[in-house]
C-alpha cells in the first residue's frame, strides 16, 4: 500500500491548481472534482426544486391554473429524475470525493482521470435530459419510474433523449463507484484496517457496490424500452408476447437498491456528526457496519413491494411483505445506536447537529410510514397515493438532503478554512425544518383520505391540506436561497477555522490544516488513534 | 429559564396546530373504514400498525428528547465513555423482530382472505381506457352482455375555472357501475392501452389494469350507497380525470336495473351484435329499399337519370364496397343523396347495401355485416 502512496506523492510534489477554466475542466484533484460535484448537485437541486414549486402552485387549489396536465406530467417526471440522478446522487459523490481520501489517509482518489470523466459526463447528460423540455411533442411525461407501455408505445418522441441521458448518468455512476471502491480498498494508510474506517467510508463502500450492481440493470431496462419504442421489439408489450409487469420487476430491481444508494451515505454522514457533538464515541460501531451491509443485502430481495397491486400471487405478496418488514430491524439498530450515542453525552447544538438530529427523527418517521407501506393489505390503500409521496419525501428530503446540508455545515470549515455564520446556519435549519414538515406532513392525510399522486387537479375535499402543503413548499424552497448565500459567504470569508474545528471531532481529516492542502496526505498518516476505536 | 419559556411557546404552538387539525373531520385525514368486511379489516390493520409506530416513536423520540434536555454541555453534563453493550444491542434487535412477527400475523390473515377465491355471483370486466373506464357484465349468452363506458361528468368549464365547481367535482361519472349489496362481485380488471389502476377506497380494492393481462378482485358490499374512487396509476394527461363511481343498490333495484340494461343489450344485439345470414340481409334490405330508396332510385333500380342515377350496373353498387358504404352513410354533397347514417340503424344500412349489390342484375356476391357498419358509424368514418 505504501508504495502506491509514495509514487503518487513524488509526482504531485509542489504542484498547485491550474488557473482559470482549465483548472476545472482538466482537474484530476479530488477536492476540485468534489467541488464540481457539489455545485452541480446544488444547481440541479434548485432547478428541480423550482419544478416542484410550479407543481405545488398548480396544486394550491382545485382547477387548472398554471399548467396544463401534459406539462404537469413533464414537470413531475423532471422533478423526480433530476432530484434523484442530478441532486442527491452527485451530492454524495461530491462528499465522497472531498472526504474519503482524508478520512483513510490517502493523497487523492485512486483513479483521478476516471474521476474527471465521471463528473464531466454529468453536465452533458443533464443538458440532454433538460433539452427534451423544448422539443416538439413534449418532454418525458411518464413519471421518473417510466412504466411501460406509457413510456414506450405511448410516449413522446423525446424518449430517446431520456434513454441516452440515463445511459450517460449510469456510466458516470459506475465509473465513480469503481473509483471509490478502488480508493477505499487500496489507498488506506497503513494501520487503517477496514474496521477502523469511519462509518462514512464504510457506507460509501457498500453504496458503491450497490451502484455497480444495479446501474447496469437500469441501463438494460431503458435499453429494452428503447428497443420496444423504436425497433419493434416486444419486451413489455403483451401483444408481442412480452409483459408490461416485467418492466416493473426490472425497474424496481434497480429502484430499490437505488433508494439505499441515496440513504446509506446519509447514514454515514450522520454517524460522523452525532458522536462529535455528543462528545462521545459512536455507539455500536460494529453493529452499524453490519446493519449497513444487511440493509444493502436486503435491498436486493424486496423490490416487488413497490408493485403489490400488479397482481402478484399470494405467496409472492407474503414473501415480499415479510422480507420488507425485515429491513426495519437493521434500520432500527441504526436509529437506536444514534440515540444511544447521544445518551449520556455532552450535547451541543450547532447547525450540523441540528440537521443530524432532525435527520434521525424525520427519517424515522419516514421509516414508520415505510413499515406501514410494507403491510400488503394496507398498502392496497396507500399505493400510489400522497401517503407514498409523504413517505419518500420524509426519507429523501429530511433524510438524504438534510444529511447533505449537515455535511456541508460540518465539513465546510475544513474545506474552506472559514467558519460559516452560526446564526444564519441555525436560521436556515429552522426554516428548512418547519418548511419541510409543513409541506410533507399533510400529504399523509391527503393520501389516506384518497388523493392519488401525480394528478394535476383534485376533488374539493383535498383543498385545505394542499394549500398548507403549498405554503410549506414555498417556505422550504425559498429557505434554500439563504443556504446558497451561506455557502457563498463561507467560501469567501468568515472566522478562521481551527484545524480541529469541532471540540469533539475525531478522524484523520481533522488532523489536516484548515483549509485542507491541495494534496491531502503527501505522506501516510501514522496516528491511527485518531481513526475510530 | 429562557429555554423553558421557549419550550412552553413551542407546546402552545403545536397545540394550536393540532386544534386546527381537529376541526377537520377525521375522515379527511384518515383512511376510510369502508363498507366491506375486508375494508374493515384493512382499516384495523392500518390503525394497529399506525399505533405500533406511534408507541415506538414515543419511546425513541422520548429518549432523544430527554437526552437533549439533560445531557447538554450547557448544563455541565460530562460525556460518559460507553460505546458498546452487547446485551442491549441483542435486545433491540430481537424486540423489533417480535413486534414484526406479531404484525405479520393479522396482515397475512387479511391478505389470505382477500385472495380467497370463492364463487362469484356476478362477474364484471373492468377495462381501462385513456381516460375512462369500460364495464362489461359478463354473461354466457352474448345477447345479454351489458357493456358501457363510464366517463368523467365534470364539465371542462369547471376544470378551467370558468364555472363554479359543484359538489363531487372530478368525482362523478355519467354511467356508474351498479352492483347489488350482499352479493359477491368479481372484477376482472384489464386495460386497453397503458397501465391504469382501479381503486375504490371504500372496498379496499386497488388493482392495476394491465394491457394483455387480467387481474381479479372481489367484494361484498354491506350497505347501499355511491362509492367513489379514481384511477391510481399515472396513465397520461387524463390520469386525474378518470373517476370511478360504484352504486351499490338493493337486490331488487339491481334486478330491475340489470333487466332493463339486458333488454337494451338484446335489442342492440339483434341489430349489430349477431352475425346475419345472407337471406336475412336480403329480406331486410328488400324492405328498406322499397320504403326508403325506391322513391328516387325506383323499385327496379333503374333510377331517373340524370337527377337520380340508376343502381343497376352502377360503378358504386358494383365497385369496391367501401365506397358504397361511404355514400350511403354520408350521402353525396350537392345531390339529393342524403346521409343515411343519421336516419337508419346499422342493420338497415348493412341490409340495404347487401341488397343493392345483389339485385337489379348486380351480382357482386359480397355482403356486409351490421357490426362492420356499426364500427364505421362509431369510428366516425
- The residue-averaged pLDDT of chain A reads 94
Judged by helices, strands and strand pairing, the structural class of chain A is mainly alpha
Order of helices and strands of chain B: HHHHEEEHEEEEEEEHHHHHH
Write the CATH homologous superfamily of chain A: Cytochrome c oxidase-like, subunit I domain
- CATH hierarchy class name of the largest domain in chain B: Mainly Beta
Q: Percentage of helical residues of chain B?
A: 40-55%
Whole-number count of domains of chain B: 3
What this model shows, in words?
The complex is a heterodimer of chains A (533) and B (381). Chain A is mostly helical. In chain A, 67% of the residues lie in helices and 0% in strands. Chain A has one domain (2-13, 53-530): Cytochrome C Oxidase, Chain A (Up-down Bundle), CATH 1.20.210. Chain A has helices at 2-12, 21-26, 30-58, 69-104, 112-131, 159-186, 199-230, 244-278, 285-298, 314-326, 328-342, 351-374, 376-382, 386-416, 422-449, 463-492. In chain A, helix 6 (159-186) packs antiparallel against helix 7. Residues 1-13 of chain A have low confidence and may be disordered. Chain B is α+β, with helices and mostly antiparallel strands and 381 residues long. Chain B has 3 domains: 31-77 and 84-115, Helix Hairpins, CATH 1.10.287; 122-272, Immunoglobulin-like, CATH 2.60.40.420; 275-378, Orthogonal Bundle (Cytochrome Bc1 Complex, Chain D, domain 2). Chain B contains 11 helices and 10 strands. Chain B has helices at 2-23, 26-29, 37-70, 86-115, 156-159, 251-273, 278-297, 315-318, 321-330, 346-357, 370-378; strands at 122-129, 132-137, 146-150, 177-180, 184-191, 196-200, 205-209, 215-220, 225-230, 243-249. In chain B, helix 3 (37-70) packs antiparallel against helix 4 and helix 10 packs across helix 11. The termini of chain B are far apart. Classes of the chains: A mainly alpha (533), B alpha+beta (381). The interface between A and B is large, with 95 and 93 residues.
Amino acid at each position: 500500500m505504501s508504495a502506491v502512496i509514495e509514487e503518487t506523492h513524488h509526482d504531485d510534489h509542489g504542484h498547485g491548481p491550474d488557473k482559470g477554466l482549465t483548472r476545472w475542466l482538466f482537474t484530476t484533484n479530488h477536492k476540485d472534482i468534489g467541488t464540481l460535484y457539489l455545485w452541480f448537485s446544488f444547481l440541479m437541486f434548485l432547478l428541480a426544486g423550482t419544478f416542484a414549486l410550479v407543481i405545488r402552485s398548480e396544486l394550491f387549489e382545485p382547477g387548472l391554473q398554471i399548467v396544463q396536465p401534459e406539462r404537469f406530467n413533464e414537470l413531475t417526471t423532471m422533478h423526480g429524475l433530476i432530484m434523484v440522478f442530478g441532486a442527491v446522487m452527485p451530492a454524495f459523490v461530491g462528499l465522497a470525493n472531498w472526504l474519503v481520501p482524508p478520512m483513510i489517509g490517502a493523497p487523492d482518489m485512486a483513479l483521478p482521470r476516471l474521476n474527471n470523466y465521471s463528473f464531466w459526463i454529468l453536465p452533458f447528460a443533464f443538458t440532454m435530459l433538460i433539452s427534451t423540455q423544448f422539443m416538439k411533442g413534449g418532454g418525458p411525461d411518464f413519471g421518473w419510474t417510466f412504466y411501460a407501455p406509457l413510456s414506450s408505445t405511448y410516449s413522446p418522441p423525446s424518449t430517446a433523449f431520456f434513454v441516452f441521458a440515463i445511459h450517460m448518468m449510469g456510466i458516470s455512476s459506475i465509473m465513480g463507484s469503481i473509483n471509490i471502491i478502488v480508493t477505499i480498498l487500496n489507498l488506506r494508510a497503513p494501520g487503517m484496517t477496514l474496521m477502523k474506517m469511519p462509518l462514512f467510508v464504510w457506507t460509501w463502500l457498500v453504496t458503491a457496490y450497490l451502484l455497480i450492481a444495479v446501474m447496469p440493470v437500469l441501463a438494460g431496462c431503458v435499453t429494452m424500452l428503447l428497443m420496444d419504442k423504436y425497433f419493434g421489439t416486444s419486451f413489455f408489450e403483451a401483444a408481442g408476447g412480452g409483459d408490461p409487469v416485467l418492466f416493473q420487476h426490472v425497474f424496481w430491481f434497480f429502484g430499490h437498491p437505488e433508494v439505499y444508494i441515496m440513504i446509506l451515505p446519509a447514514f454515514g454522514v450522520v454517524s460522523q456528526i452525532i458522536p462529535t457533538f455528543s462528545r462521545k464515541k459512536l455507539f455500536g460501531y460494529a453493529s452499524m457496519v453490519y446493519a449497513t451491509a444487511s440493509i444493502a443485502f436486503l435491498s436486493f430481495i424486496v423490490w416487488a413491494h413497490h408493485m403489490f397491486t400488479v397482481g402478484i400471487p399470494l405467496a409472492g405478496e407474503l414473501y415480499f411483505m415479510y422480507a420488507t418488514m425485515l429491513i426495519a430491524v437493521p434500520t432500527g439498530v441504526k436509529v437506536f445506536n444514534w440515540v444511544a450515542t447521544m445518551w449520556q453525552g455532552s450535547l451541543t447544538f450547532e447547525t450540523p447537529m441540528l440537521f443530524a438530529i432532525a435527520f434521525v427523527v424525520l427519517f424515522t418517521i419516514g421509516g414508520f410510514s415505510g413499515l406501514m407501506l410494507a403491510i400488503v393489505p394496507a398498502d392496497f390503500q396507500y399505493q400510489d397515493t400522497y401517503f407514498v409521496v409523504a413517505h419518500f419525501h420524509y426519507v429523501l428530503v429530511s433524510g438524504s438532503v438534510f444529511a447533505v446540508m449537515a455535511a456541508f455545515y460540518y465539513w465546510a470549515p475544513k474545506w474552506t478554512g472559514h467558519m460559516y455564520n452560526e446564526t444564519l446556519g441555525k436560521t436556515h435549519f429552522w426554516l428548512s425544518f418547519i418548511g419541510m414538515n409543513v409541506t410533507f406532513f399533510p400529504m399523509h392525510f391527503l393520501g389516506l383520505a384518497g388523493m392519488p399522486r401525480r394528478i394535476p387537479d383534485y376533488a374539493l375535499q383535498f383543498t385545505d391540506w394542499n394549500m398548507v402543503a403549498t405554503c410549506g413548499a414555498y417556505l422550504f424552497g425559498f429557505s434554500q436561497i439563504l443556504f446558497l448565500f451561506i455557502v457563498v459567504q463561507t467560501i469567501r470569508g468568515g472566522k478562521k477555522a481551527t484545524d480541529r474545528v469541532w471540540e469533539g471531532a475525531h478522524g484523520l481529516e481533522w488532523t489536516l490544516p484548515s483549509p485542507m492542502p491541495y494534496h491531502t496526505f503527501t505522506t501516510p498518516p501514522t496516528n491511527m488513534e485518531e481513526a475510530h476505536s | 429559564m429562557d429555554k423553558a419559556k421557549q419550550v412552553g411557546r413551542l407546546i402552545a404552538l403545536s397545540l394550536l396546530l393540532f386544534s386546527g387539525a381537529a376541526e377537520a373531520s377525521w375522515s379527511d385525514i384518515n383512511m376510510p373504514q369502508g363498507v366491506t368486511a375486508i375494508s374493515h379489516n384493512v382499516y384495523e390493520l392500518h390503525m394497529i400498525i399506525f399505533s405500533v409506530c406511534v408507541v415506538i416513536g414515543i419511546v425513541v423520540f422520548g429518549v432523544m428528547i430527554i437526552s437533549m434536555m439533560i445531557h447538554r454541555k450547557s448544563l455541565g453534563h460530562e460525556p460518559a465513555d460507553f460505546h458498546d453493550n452487547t446485551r442491549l444491542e441483542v435486545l433491540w434487535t430481537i424486540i423489533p423482530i417480535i413486534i414484526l412477527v406479531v404484525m405479520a400475523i393479522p396482515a397475512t390473515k387479511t391478505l389470505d382472505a382477500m385472495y380467497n377465491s370463492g364463487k362469484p355471483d356476478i362477474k364484471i370486466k373492468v377495462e381501462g381506457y385513456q381516460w375512462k373506464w369500460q364495464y362489461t357484465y359478463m354473461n354466457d349468452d352474448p345477447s345479454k352482455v351489458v357493456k358501457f363506458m363510464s366517463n368523467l361528468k365534470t364539465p371542462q368549464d369547471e376544470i378551467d375555472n370558468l364555472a363554479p365547481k359543484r359538489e363531487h367535482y372530478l368525482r362523478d361519472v355519467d354511467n356508474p357501475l351498479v352492483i347489488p349489496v350482499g352479493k359477491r362481485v368479481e372484477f376482472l380488471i384489464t386495460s386497453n392501452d397503458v397501465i391504469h389502476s382501479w381503486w375504490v377506497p371504500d372496498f379496499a380494492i386497488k388493482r392495476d389494469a394491465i394491457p394483455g393481462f387480467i387481474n381479479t378482485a372481489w367484494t361484498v358490499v354491506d350497505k347501499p350507497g355511491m362509492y367513489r374512487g379514481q384511477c391510481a396509476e399515472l396513465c397520461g394527461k387524463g390520469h386525474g380525470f378518470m373517476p370511478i363511481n360504484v352504486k351499490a343498490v338493493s337486490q331488487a333495484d339491481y334486478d330491475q336495473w340489470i333487466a332493463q340494461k339486458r333488454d337494451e343489450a338484446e335489442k342492440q344485439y339483434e341489430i349489430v351484435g349477431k352475425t346475419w345470414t345472407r337471406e336475412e340481409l336480403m329480406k331486410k334490405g328488400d324492405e328498406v329499399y322499397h320504403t326508403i330508396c325506391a322513391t328516387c332510385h325506383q323499385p327496379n333500380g333503374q333510377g331517373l337519370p340524370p337527377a337520380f342515377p340508376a343502381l343497376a350496373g352502377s360503378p358504386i353498387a358494383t365497385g369496391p364496397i367501401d365506397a358504397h358504404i361511404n355514400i350511403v352513410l354520408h350521402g353525396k354533397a350537392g345531390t339529393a343523396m342524403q346521409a343515411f347514417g343519421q336516419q337508419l340503424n346499422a342493420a338497415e344500412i348493412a341490409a340495404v347495401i347487401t341488397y343493392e349489390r345483389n339485385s337489379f342484375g348486380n351480382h357482386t356476391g359480397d355482403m356486409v355485416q351490421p357490426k362492420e357498419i356499426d364500427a364505421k358509424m362509431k369510428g366516425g368514418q
